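User: Fold this; tokens only.

Assistant: Input:
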Amino acid sequence: MRRLLCLLLLVLALPAYATGLLENRPSSTLGSINNSADFLPVREAFQLSLVESTPQSIKLRFVATDGYYLYRHRFQFRADPADVVLGTAQLPKGEQKHDEYFGDVEVYHGILDVELPRTDQRAFNLAVTYQGCADKGLCYPPETERLSIDGVGGPAHESWGWRELALFFLAGLGLTFTPCVLPMLPILSGVVLRGQVGGLRGFNLSLAYVLPMAACFALLGALMGMFGAQLNLQARLQSAWVLVPFAMFFAVFALAMFGVFELKLPHAISSRLDRIAGRTEGGSLWGAAVLGVVSSLLVSPCVSAPLAGALLYISASGDALGGGLKLFMLGLGMGAPLLLVATGGAAWLPKSGPWLVYVKNAIGVLLLGLAIGLLSRVLPGEITLLLIGLLAGGVGLFMGALEFVYKPPRKRLGQLLGMFLVFYALACWYGAFSGQTDPLNPIGQPRVVTGHQQPQKDVSDWQTVSTPAELDRILVEASASGTPLLLDWYADWCISCKVIEHEVLNDAKVVERLKGYRLIRFDITASNAEQRALLGRYKLFGPPALMFFGKDGVERADVRVIGEINAADFAERVAKANDRI
């Protein structure tokens, strides 16, 4: 249980890792339940906020709700008055999304930070236009929001909170259980405490040691926060010239974790620090404080690999205060076991042993994963999938997946996990050579095409309109003549609309069941005020949507389709509509 807890805490030592490796998500799901309750209004699906406004730049943050994504090429930023000059928006590289009708596009899931360079110090209104879709197939029309930008700087956003600080504390606690830190605890307790274990005196001595050590880490975090703020490291981290060296940097640290070589301070520095530590008198508050500062320098090379991930995360935030607080909590976490020893709780700590080697190897695997995550921003998705498969296969072989000899029960469980990783690696390699890019679905799912397809219907079968007045006139005509009507909401920028047009409405079974219907396509590509008002009238958020109107001109709302659907399910929906027309 202790080993499992340690591995869990070590994962927290790489906060930057969570943003890179497995960000890709599956594409829209066909045949889902399609009704208005399944989708959020556009401003709930995509939340825009002003993070920071400085004389040099404006930082915006988009938060796409889970299951929704934004298009990179649909962003527009305009100032009012128009003579206020803005620089080119700095957008990170998005996730690659291929569509057979639109080609390759880039999309963003989750949190997206956009920085706009600013040279004009006047106050103005910023019009931000964006467009996104739901994974289930609904595409929203372009949306424009207006933000007031103050002339001397807008609201600042703290990039830290108590949750993040708690995570860094836990990460520091996890770093204690590394092969070169945990064995130091008995030595440090002997030097700092000088046998004064327990009581207020022991607690004060250990605290005098821990606080200066944490302060040194805090200073490093603050400097990295300032470095990121001044050089805009977050934007520069989207460049291959920066990402590739950083990835190699983490790969080298991973080799150190695997024991290929040992990370140490230069001998001239380490020997001088050892002399200072040797001359420092233990058992006093001043001596404990000096030892804390020296220990932070001695221990840093040993934990530098995961610490580098934390520093990369902090430098990208550009927040000096937040960076200092985060690494201060990291230092407190690393010193917490010494406080436990000082109060007489040493028996609660795990003993040193071979299990520390597994912890070290686990850190190495996480660092290689982080390196792949960084490279995924500049490499094709297929190559990234190959690298993920290579890492998974290597870990599986290390766990004895192919060692078919007798093993005790615990090692057999590890071998079973290793075999699973090897199979996953094979799936990744197969998917990569098949053109797949998603590590969560490496084999992929080919688009289902029914065997009853027929050539596309003649364009004259569908009548296209683009104004509410035209649609109202057609609905009146259909009702007067007693003709059922199918209304297809369509836009050129809607990928799912193309799927429905080519693969659903052309299906032979669907075509057969739609005989006798008047087929109307409402084109909302322009997304003007009139068209958006019509969407509101029918309580729609955007295309695609398919609406059935009976011979009496009344919509059969129970069979309305919103979002993407496959041909078989839509044929059943048409049959249900026919029973009620």
